Amino acid sequence: MNTPLRTTNRRRLLASAWLSFVLLLALLAAWLPLPYAPATTDLAHVAEPPLQTAAAYPHHWLGTDPFGRDLLANLIFGARTALLVSVPAALFSTGLGLMLGSFAGFWGDTNLRVALGYWLASGSALLAAFLSFAGFWSTTAFLLLSGFTLVIVLATPRLRLLRHLAAFPADRLVMSAVALLESIPRLVLVLVMAAVQEASVFNLLLVLSFTYWTGPARLIRADLQRVKHLPYIEAARAAGLSDFSVLLRHALPNASRGVRTAFPLSIAALIGLETTLSFLGIGLPAETASWGRLMATVRLEPAAWWLIAEPGLLLLGTMLALRQLAGTRPTTV
Amino acid sequence: MTRILSAGLTLLAIVGLTTCSSPRTPSATVRIRWAQDPGNLDPLAPSNPYATESLNLLHTYLLASDNITGTPAPWLAEAIPTIQRTDSLTLITYRLRKKARWDNGEPVSAHDVAFTLKVMNCPGLPNEAVRARFDFIEDVLFDKNDNRHFTLVCRGRAPEFLKASGDYPILPEYALDPQRTLRSFSLRTLQKNDNTFAANPVITAFVRRYLAADLPHHPERLPGCGPYQLQKWHSGQQLTFKRKRSWWADQLRPVPAHLLARPTTIEYQVIPDVGTSLLALRRGEIDIYPLVPAKDFYRLSRSEAARRLQFHTFDSYEMVTLGFNTRHPLLQDKLTRRALSHLVDIPGLIKATQQGVAQRTVGLISPHNRAAYNDSLPLLSYDLTAATLLLQKAGWLRQADGRWLRRMVSGQTQPLSLTVSYRAGDPLYEQVAAQFQTAATLLGVPVRLRPTEASVLTGKLKSGEFELYIRTLMGNPFIFNFAPILHSASVGTSNYTGFGTPTSDKLIEAIALEENPKRKIRLLRKFQILLQQESPLVPLFFLPYRLIASNQIANLQPSGLNPGYEVKTIITQSAN
């Protein structure tokens, strides 16, 4: 085995070991024999450096923050929060991006033809959803719109007028949404969305997911546009397979390599975003431990280097490890 | 020729370099750090102490108060008013200063004072808080021969009436009611707060005009007779007050101390973050930093930068309080409130947040007031056992899983789980909340923290959308009127806890009206006992005021009364 390959594999091993360590800490956080809970304040030991506590007290091995909270407990529970937010958000945003990107890339603007009735039903359902989301809601409106949607869906196969096929501009719609979301800096968008919602892990997860799907969507769209013209896809079509079947069984497995490679990078970016939001005091409830929130306390105690160094090292290590995993491929000897 | 040229160039270079490297140009501008925006500059409903500080620059009051002794001093009044007492009334007679003028040149008259009192009682205006404070003034008697001379007719008798009768900004009738429509109503009639008056077309038209002016955000639409005008207001960032070129008090000789207005410009910079504020002070971007956290105060006093700064500490009348929403089903009974009060580790908090320097208290009266302070009451202890016993006494039962449940009259059970609201970004509140949460968790009571933006928090407190709050409360060592914060009549306005029983209301009213000092002290002591028993709000400790200012600032007159300095008397390097 040549040296660069060996180095790459070593790095990969190191990255995997580090991530396993962080994952293990996060999973076992609640069962670890920690002397303090993350939210517990110790007023007698405020902003204490690591390894300084008197023997009479349980040790604050890694020091305390300016509120007297144990850093060890907060780092471990902060790891749990980082993973709890970033992994589901990455999964959900990748899933959403995969779905919308596939629509756009595989069918384009002209290939997806939908009956006029279903167009109307979708419009009515979307209007109902919008009214509900915007708060202009009433039972009468709900009943009317639901009834209309149902009637149209049932009537479409029977009425010739409603069966008339019209092209669905999937690509244009998805790419417009992508352009719209990407025209606003992501941090600004997330900040605005997180600020108007009540702070909770679930809400933060939703905000991150709905702002992060554009990357995977663009990747999968580009790959599908390439793959759909390959001869084996043409062959599958000629064999009489349905569009969905061709997409799911033949096109996506080949086109999703880019998304799979970018997935660890998505997690890394989302951990960074969650840390930034917590640093700014937005998104997560005040009692939830977070690396970003821990780092933010250094403003109250500028000389407390450990408040930046300890969560900073964990964050740096995790992000580097994720990047390492994304940037290299497993190499067999 | 060459020599002359080179000498000239050298001279120019020296002058240029000297200009570049000299300290910042001395000016009569004072720059002060504020932790939050004043939010609402309507003189009827200032939302916080910063709004009150702003209104003191824009408007003048009849009387001022000496920060140290508390003795009243004439401000817009020519002299201390005379007092006459009858069986049930107090008559306070004022004469306004002859030179006092509005910006349009018209003299300030007794009708302006009467107009102000009517506005403070007019139905339909956001005047609930001021109405509760000044409803003892029931009429204004004019002097037909002298429009500067008038008598305030006050209901009842109380020594505080003298100071309180002149403690509101006088508003210009010409600006708000040029047609003088309110003159047709007496103050007594408006005070009835009758619904028929609210529908009166004259009143309705006046209220519409007043509200349309949007004074909370456009104070410039109400020109006061104070020395300053609001020049700029970038909400959440900065407020700039400019001194009027010719202010009526400049003609007085000698200028009374309370009518001094030295700085030509006062700039308030809204910097919520403590670290950023300290950096601004170090860089010389602000001149005064009031209410500095203890840790930063002492750290800065030991640093290199201390040579360019002056440091002041005073015992204040501002206290940190834990308040309960007594309307909330979980917190309606006093035993639960008292149990939860035992979860605050006051000595620990004083040590952690104030470097051990703060004054504990049993109630709302400062321990400095030795006569009125009820030292026979015990200081609140941090005692989980006492809290457990009190919770059990209140009907709460601890379950096997550690939670507390109580069976209600309806047969349903309610779990004991609480939220604590406080202003976001303030380390002191965060510390108190975190400690309370820690203690409550030990007891098995889940507590959620709700750091909230200042103006949102005020709205939630007013509407009763909270369970517990942590905030500071401004005390006044010279006036004992607890009606705005604890009387049932103030619920929905400034009585955030929603507390008020017939007994407590009666006691609060008796304290406000009592004029015999010995009897008043007895009542005040009784009030402290009642407050500790009922615990609608728990005073934790009095904060020391710590103020840091640039060495270029003089005559700050630091004191224990908010904001901790007298901005109008400040002398800057250039003005000196």
TrEMBL record, chain A:
ABC transmembrane type-1 domain ranges (all copies): 137-326
Membrane topology per record: Multi-pass membrane protein
Keywords on record: Cell membrane, Membrane, Transmembrane, Transmembrane helix, Transport
Signal sequence region: none
Keyword Transport: yes
Keyword DNA repair assigned: no
Bilayer-spanning residue ranges: 82-104, 116-136, 142-161, 173-195, 201-220, 262-283, 303-322
Location, primary (coarse class): membrane
Cell compartment(s), UniProt: Cell membrane
Domain of life of the source: Bacteria
Matches recorded under PANTHER family: D,D-DIPEPTIDE TRANSPORT SYSTEM PERMEASE PROTEIN DDPC-RELATED, OLIGOPEPTIDE TRANSPORT SYSTEM PERMEASE PROTEIN APPC
Family: Belongs to the binding-protein-dependent transport system permease family.
The protein, known as: Peptide ABC transporter permease
Source organism: Hymenobacter cavernae
